[in-house]
């Protein structure tokens, strides 16, 4: 059974750095072809793709946020961490992590429940 | 970055209707396109990947087609469980992107 769960602060102040952790089970990031990505959704708005890390440590980032995002993995503990610097109220959103199977062309087939992050002073 | 444009933004339909949603890419993405369904307060659910491959467990009334820059999601006979918001996503390039969504509501 594949599960993913996001965790992190529910509130951050403007200019602070957000650190989110995705803990997963039922698959391994050591397996060829597997990746874990992050997607966010501001309240009442559309999904926004943020970043992806692959089994071979290849990383992709949303171009408009590339300078603020860092994605890392720890395959031994089944965790992926996303950091976003210089948070702003417009970054208020539900943040999701999701599994991908890249060579097979399968994007986000399993998702976490999401975690709401509010940016407010 | 490749931009994804969905139409319409909102679609009002009745149970049993045939529903079509369009997604256009600002440049060719071959067939690297997925469709998701999202219900309020829930994570999105993958319906179709590689433009036309049905994800396991998804009903066959969902059909994806297209390649290059123009894609469609068709629901052959809308069911009560299908009222939701649908998103397309391109995953062709180094920076992936979603469309702005299409809400399917009750007519």
Question: What descriptors fit this protein?
Answer:
heterodimer; A: 121 residues; mainly beta; 4-stranded antiparallel sheet; B: 107 residues; 11 strands; 50% strand; globular
Query: Largest interface, by Cβ-Cβ below 8 angstroms: which chains and how many residues each?
Result: A-B, 23 and 24 residues
Mean pLDDT score of chain B: 96
Largest sheet of chain B: 7 strands, mixed
| Separation, N- and C-terminal Cα atoms of chain B | 36 Å
The number of helical elements of chain B comes to 0
Number of beta strands of chain A: 11
Q: Helical segment tally of chain A?
A: 0
* Rg over CA atoms of chain B: 13 Å
Q: Note poorly predicted spans of chain A.
A: none
Cα-based radius of gyration of chain A, to the nearest Å: 14 Å
Beta-strand share of residues of chain B:
over 45%
- Overall, the morphology of chain B is globular
Q: How would you sum up the global shape of chain A?
A: globular
What is the chains' assembly state?
heterodimer
Short description:
The complex is a heterodimer of chains A (121) and B (107). Chain A is mostly beta strands.
Descriptive report:
The complex is a heterodimer of chains A (121) and B (107). Chain A is mostly beta strands and 121 residues long. Chain A has strands spanning 3-7, 11-12, 18-25, 34-41, 48-54, 59-61, 69-74, 79-84, 93-101, 106-111, 115-119. In chain A, the strands form two sheets. In chain A, strands 2, 4, 5, 6, 9, 10 and 11 form a seven-stranded mixed sheet that branches. Chain A has a four-stranded antiparallel sheet with strand order 1-3-8-7, with no helix packed on it. Chain B has strands at residues 4-7, 10-13, 19-25, 33-38, 45-49, 53-54, 62-67, 70-75, 85-90, 97-98, 102-106. In chain B, the strands form two sheets. In chain B, strands 2, 4, 5, 6, 9, 10 and 11 form a seven-stranded mixed sheet that branches. Chain B has a four-stranded antiparallel sheet with strand order 1-3-8-7, with no helix packed on it. Chain B is mainly beta and 107 residues long. At the A-B interface, strand 5 and strand 10 of A face strand 4, strand 5 and strand 10 of B.
């Amino acid at each position: 059974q594949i599960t993913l769960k996001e965790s992190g602060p529910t509130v951050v102040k403007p200019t602070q750095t957000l650190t989110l952790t995705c803990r997963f089970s039922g698959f391994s990031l050591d397996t060829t072809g597997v990746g874990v990505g992050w997607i966010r959704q501001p309240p009442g708005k559309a999904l926004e793709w943020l970043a992806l890390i692959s089994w071979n440590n290849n990383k992709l980032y949303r171009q408009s946020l590339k300078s603020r995002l860092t994605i890392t993995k720890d395959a031994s503990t089944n965790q992926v961490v996303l950091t976003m610097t210089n948070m702003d109220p417009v970054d208020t959103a539900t943040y999701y992590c999701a599994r991908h199977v890249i060579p097979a062309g399968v994007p986000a087939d399993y998702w976490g429940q999401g975690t709401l992050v509010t940016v407010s002073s | 970055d490749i931009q994804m444009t969905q139409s319409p933004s909102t679609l009002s339909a009745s149970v049993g209707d045939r529903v079509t949603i369009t997604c256009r890419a600002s440049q060719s993405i071959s067939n690297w396109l997925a469709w998701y369904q999202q219900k309020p307060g829930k994570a999105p659910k993958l319906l179709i990947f590689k433009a036309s491959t049905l994800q396991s467990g998804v009903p066959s009334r969902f059909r994806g087609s297209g390649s290059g820059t123009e894609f469609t999601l068709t629901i052959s006979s809308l069911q009560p469980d299908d009222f939701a918001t649908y998103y397309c996503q391109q995953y062709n390039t180094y920076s992936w992107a979603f469309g702005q969504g299409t809400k399917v509501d009750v007519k």
